[in-house]
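Reopening closed ticket. The problem is back. First fold of the pair:
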Amino acid sequence: MTNSPLNQPASILTVTSFNRWIQQTLISTIPLTWVAGEISNLTRAASGHWYFSLKDAQAQVRCVMFRGRNQFIDWQPENGMQVEVRATAGLYEPRGEFQLQVENLRRAGLGALFEAFERLKRKLELEGLFDSARKRAIPAMPRQIGIITSPQAAALRDVLTTLNRLMPSLPVILYPCQVQGTTAPAQIINALNFAYQRAECDVLIICRGGGSIEDLWAFNDEQVARTVTASPIPIISGVGHETDFTITDFVSDLRAPTPTAAASLACPNRDQLLQSLDLIQARLSRQLRSQIAQRQQKLQHLTARLVHPGKRIQTQRITLQQFANRLRLAQQANLQQRIWQQAQLKVRLKRPNMETRRSQLTQYRNRMQLTMQHLLSQRLSTLQHLRNELNHLSPNAVLTRGYAIVSDEQGDIVHNTAQLDINAKLSIHFAKDSVDTQVRRLYTTNRLKK
């Protein structure tokens, strides 16, 4: 309260400032709260706002529900109704009147129903009854459809009208039952079990029109939900309007927002099927015409290549005759050539030309002699070249230039004085001769060794 105007010294507030301060204090300190009571003095203003009092045996409080909030209420409140409002506390500043600004409005006791609904929903969800894995697909072309609803329900007329529009020839069976009231759950269960025993339908529609939560409570019954779960036949739930949800919606194989939508989901559209068939027929016709045209073109091509058997035999006979003539001419020519060759050979055998043979032998002998002389000259030249190379590398050639070879008594070549001793006997070889000698003195570099 440190920011309160009353904390400031010598502060005097106007009524407007005081009311605004009270309004701000109420908004900041009192949260959004549920309040129960009886409606009285209800007024619906031309602006769309609702004004009423909420009272009990000891007190009352003014309430306002603005148009932006009350337009979502699907029922009409009346004086004397027991209701529950969810509201914030406030002050109407122009008149300084305390009032509740209502955000939501419901009939008294609906809170307990919602709690029961949420409790059963959590229980069945934990058991796996809502799992999509256990839900079955709806047949695309059902042979017969069953409807579980009241014969007097407007939803039945909507479903039948939709089914007749979509597929007039599709048989429909009604399993009548109450869809509202205390006996409705038992009748719904009986209708379901009867449909299961008959097993004459491919899909079942369980439906009714919209209403309050009390009106739809039969479809929130636990036994109804378990009976729907145990169905051997796929079930479509079309209970209430788009914003209504029941336990039956969650356990069914498919949930439809309205009964009309449930009929649309259960039944194929005859007009769409006919259009699809027309499209398929047209596509098949085009493909068939295209294939026929291709086959005709191929047939014409083969026909053009096809020759009459008689004409083909005649052509082959002419070709065969030509081959026979060419073979006969070739045989005659080959025979003439063999006869001429034979005659030539006979002539050559009878009169051999000895002078020619002698001349050829003389030519062969001369060519052989020339070849031998040429080869001998090449070999001699190579031998001389090798002799020169050998003389060049021979030690004797080195000795002729004044060098000598010194060897010890064992015949080993002496390379330096380190191999010798005093009085050692040596042999000195020159280019032509050799001499024996004996070591008297040994000289090393710059020194005489004794």
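Second fold of the pair, where the issue appears:
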Amino acid sequence: MPRIISIHSYRGGTGKSNLTANIAAIVARKGYRVGVIDTDIQSPGIHILFGLNDNTIKHTLNNYLWGQCPIRDAVYDVTSVLQEKVNNHGSIYLVPCSTKLNDISRVLRERFDVELLLEGFKDLIKDIKLDYLFVDTHPGLTQETLISLTTSDIVMLILRPDQQDFQGTAVTVDVARRLKTPLLLLTINKVLTDYDFNDLKKKVESTYEAPVAGIIPESKDILRLGSSSIFCLTYPNHPISQAIDGIVKHIIS
């Protein structure tokens, strides 16, 4: 049965989009049909990790939401990023957002039909026969985010070991529980290597009464890569890649 996984954070700068791309890629490498949809319409960017740019993108999620095309026209097969090590029939597809200033301004000015977005989720899963659909959300609590959380089988909240993140995540956890999210997972990102990871995991799980799926160490290697590719595919044996593989096991178990 297909699953919808929303990956969310209360604040920007948590590495949410980067983690979404890496998690989705690893799931696809395990032989699943995976979709990724960028609903961070105000600040899109996940398409860069999959090698797409304005020259290769014709239709976007924006065009679908404005009634200019069916959502399948905004889908791009990015399976080539998985390179040659694909098990069975694993594949990955992306629905990007427009990075054009006029389009972003229009979204901020006019908003869009949230119910149509949900219909798009369903059509994507049906048309492409997806096993998993990953939704890269806009940070914070907006109407669009709340609707995404409501329809998700799994909500993964990304936070950093930072007091502002801790407070904001507490609010989001409370909202997710009120929305009766079937499964709530936490991932702690950008953690300094001199932290006691076990102690941090216990503290966070105790605070939010939710499982920590993974702790991602801070690394200059991510900065060096500069979003030029998907980290886990470039450095499969790196501690970060191993931590993300552990998160994937929580999702597909």
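Update: turned out to be a display glitch only; the data is intact. The longest strand covers residues 183-191. The chain has one domain: 3-252. Please close again.
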